Structure formats: C-alpha cells, structure tokens
Input
Amino acid sequence: METSRPRLPFGSWPSPLSAASVTAASPRYEGARFVTLPEGEQIWWGESVPAEGGRTTIRRRLTDGAVDELLPPPWNARSRVHEYGGGAWAATDDGALCFVEKTDQRVWIRQEGSSPRPLTPADTAMRFGGLRFAAGHLWAIREDHAAAGAPARDIVRLPVDGSAATDAERVVSVVAGSDFLAHPAVSPDGKHLAWVAWNHPHMPWDRTEIRVGRLVDGRVTGWEVIAGGVDRAPLQPEWTDAEHLVFVDDPDGRWNLHAWSASAGVTRIDTAAADTGGPLWSLGARWYAPTEGGHAIAVRTDGSDRVVTVSPAGEDRDLGAPVTAGASVEDAAGGRALIIGTRTDGASGVWVVDSATARWESVTGGEAAWPAEWSPTPVAVTTSGPHGEVHAFAFAPTNPDVAGPEGELPPYLVLVHGGPTGHVGGAASPKIAYFTSRGIGVLDVNYGGSSGYGRAYRDRLRGMWGVVDVDDVSAAAAHLAETAMADPARIAIEGGSAGGWTVLAAIARGTVFAAGISRYGVGDARALAAETHDFEARYLDGLIGPLPDAEELYLERSPLSHPEGFDVPMLLLQGADDEVVPPAQAEAIRHALTAGGVPHAYVLYDGEGHGFRRAETVIHALETELAFLGAAFGFTPRDVAPLALS
Output
C-alpha cells in the first residue's frame, strides 16, 4: 500500500511514548469497595505508585467527587502470604481502613484523622492477607513461619475495637485443617463461615474444596464439604443471606455460578461456555458479586473478558463493558458493582456499572495516556500447533507519522505470560504500545496451559511443561512468518517467571527465535523445586511429575541441561530479592552464555523481588529491552542508550 509518510527502519521510529510515560501509565489497581458513611457513599481503591517505589496506597472518591489519599507514604499495603499476597486491605463499617503493612506484615488500622495503630503483635514470623470485614470483626488468612519447614496457615479473627488485651485475644484462630485457605466468607447472621481449602500437591485451579462451618464464640466447631473433588476447583463463596451461598465451580471444565443451601444442597445457576473464575494466585481475586434480587454481576472470560448480569434462572445480559482484559468484580451495592480492568487500548482503571441501565462511570484511570492513533488494534489469532489450537493476540507496528521501508517486514516480539496458568486478554498494554509505536510488532500468546479457555486447554500443560508451551509459542511465531506478518529472521521472544522458562527452553531446543529476553526466568526445574516457596513447592508435580520419580524429565526439560542450544543473543533481567525464582537461576544461565560465547547482557536489580515495581527499575528494564533488540537485530532505537552485549 502506498503511503505519503516518511519511511524509516523498523525499530527506529520516533515515538512520544517514553519508558517513563509508559511506567506512569501502568499503575496496578488492587481492590475496590463501596463505603457507606453517614455523610454519603465513598468509593475506595488500592493503587500502586511507581514513582514511590511501587508502594500500594489506598485512595477514595468522596461524596463530592474529590479524590484524596487514605494511606500516605511511607505506608505500603502489601501482603506476602503465598508470596503473591492479595487482599491487603479492607474497610470497616464505620469507615476505618485496615491494611497489611509490607515492611512488617502486621495488620494495622487507621481511623479518620488518626495515625495507624497495629492490630496484630510484632511477630516477624507471621504474615496476613485476604482481609475481609464482616460481623464486626476483621477476618484474614494467617501464614505462620515460626516453625521449621512449611508454614502453617489458618483463618483468624481480629477485633478492631481495641478491646483485645492480650496477643491471644488480638489474633483468634478460627479454623485450619488444610495446607492452604482462601476466601473466608461470614454469613450475615454471623453463624457460619465458608471458605476455600486445598492441600499439596494440588494448586487452587486444579483441586479445591468449599467448606462451610458453624461459628460458636467466633470459632468453627465443625465443617462440611459442600463442593469440590477430583478435577474440581470451586472458588469464591459469597453469602446472599443467612442460609444461601453462591460460589463458582467447574464440574464440566468451565467455572460457572452455583448455589448452595443446607436444605436444597448444590444447584447450578448458569452453564456459560466461558469462565467466571480463574487461577487463584492472589488472595483478593474476585470474579463476581451478588446483587439485589438474587442476581449477580460477573466476568465471563473466553479469550477476552465480558461483564454480564446473571439472573437467578441463569439468564445473562451483556453490560457492554469498556474492559476486555484483567476484569474483576470487586464489590456490589444494590444493582451496581465496582469493576477493575483494562480497555482494548491498554488503559486500566476502576469503573462503576449499573446493571439496570448498563451505564458505566469511570472512578479513576480508564483514559489512555496518549492519542488513540498510537495504540495498536489487537487482532485475535488462532493457529494450529502440534497439540491443538493456539490462541494469541497480534499487535502490528503502529505509528501515524512514519512507515517502514517498502517491501520489508517488521521485527516482532513474542510475549509469553507467566504462571504458566496466566492469561492475556487482547489489550494493548502501555508496554506493547511502546514497542509497536517504534516499529516492532508484538504477539501476545495464550499457549496451552493458559487460563481463559477452560480446563481442557489449561490441562494441556499437565505433565508437559517445557514441551507444550514451547511448541505452542513456536507455532504462533511460525504463523507470523508464514502469513508475512513478521520478518522470520527478526522474531524475538520475551517472558517472565514461568514465561522466562519457556523463553529459555524455546531457544535451547528450537530455531524459530533470533533473540530472547528472560525476566527472572526458570532455567533449572530441579533447583526451582528445591528452592521455591511453599505455595508452589509441589506445583511442578503437575507440570512435570513428582520427584524423585520424574527426575530424568526434570533434567531433560530444563533449559540449563541444553546450554549448547543457547545460540542467539539473550537479555537476562533479575530481581536481587526474588524468593520465587532466586537470582542463582539467572546467574547459572549467564554462566552458560559466557561459557558458550553467546552475546548477552545481565542486569540485577537491587530491592526488587518477583516482578518489578519501582519506577526506576521498570523504566530501565524497558529501555534496556529496546536497546537489546536494536543490538540483536541491527537497528538504532531513538532516545535510549545503546547496549553492549558481552
């Protein structure tokens, strides 16, 4: 197609999207609540502040529309339960803020106009998360690291009125009885507790139970299992009244809404060919909320996200959500709900939706930081791989001011999400737009093992990690070349954590990719099994096989077992404080690259863990990635320093 725009080499295009602007446009929203006070309704939400070391603050919109901050620096609401945290704050009925402080993992409470005071003892062995206020108390998941070996976990009750005189009264154990617990839900009359429980070696998307117990003097005296079993992972119990419970379950491979009462047992509400549910990496995850009249507002995921209202009879109505990825239903009041999510153009935010009118109102965020012509349009791609269909979203180079050289195909960056049960929903994140605006296409892949397409697609990776994921991303990249979307000699691959494993394995055992970027990636599966934290300590049992019986598979699948396959330029980015994938993994890969004479660069970020949060780190990492692609593919990016490869 002819164009009057200047033609410049792909990768060297001028762009107004700097790494700093991309970082500023990428806050994380962590929970949202309606808070009703005598002066009127407020909306509270958690939000990361990259410019302040990535700390999570709590903000609120007042009745007059003004926004202020409830949690000033240096306070940082972040839980480390399961290492991934979640549910790090809650609001009491009278408008006090309860939160987990990152630095000491204690639970604190802040009343209006007062400084925070601690609710839990100064015990460095304890962590708290999954906070929820109900029946006049704060309920939480406690993780106790005091004893040697795996930490113990229970659901606890925390008085918030200052009445507790001793440490035992400040943290009251309510129920334990399993390796892991989540989603404590107290019935409106305070007589019953429902929660999710699971045990090693299962993960909470493989096999869980929902238990319901009777509360006597604030403790569970006995429970029954109302849902769960083999190949079932029920999640998120919510009481609609004192006798009726709603939850999601996947008996036929899709998470759908179900109901339970002691008199009627379990009944199914809907049968959608989409998921209302997902991997429980974060204790605060919510996919639906009950609303008035027995209805619910729920996320439906099948590739991308929709938001619907579901009637008691299971009939749904699409609410026309502006969000297509990362959607969660955080809270409900009457027929309204608070939704967190990301639009197609990559703008994340918090919205209020009215289920009666399908009207959406932005609370915060939700606006792109640059004009629409700079945001690429996602194109859903489905291609065939050795194990079945492979789903992805393609984002072509997009720049209103310049075009690429005539007759030349662009370089592409294939993104591999983590998990590996993660999911991408077809949204042009600020990072994606950063690359596409410079003439580098992006393919975001949901390889076999990803969530969002049902249990069968997710289970494709069972026992096959390092095979199915590698084959699927390679098939997706080959599709780019076969359909003349990308220059086959300039296709790079990038991923973090489990996605980093796939990057390393795809390069070690394949020939599709011409460069690789690994963010805190796994190179040695045996070392990961030995060193990682308790939440994922048995994860590899399902992904590869149980040790020691499957040791040969661990050796065969691990990228570090095939260093001779590392034959293209690579960039390694690692957090020095990462306890999920420790720096030793990246350093072993760097040693193999050095020994093999492979061009590479290694950057270790002090103060960062599993995932980068500080603005200076995110900016530096993004600019380093762009400079690396320029060094690997022979173009000169604008506005970033060149990167010398060792």
Notes: The radius of gyration is 24 Å. DSSP finds eleven helices and 36 strands in the chain.
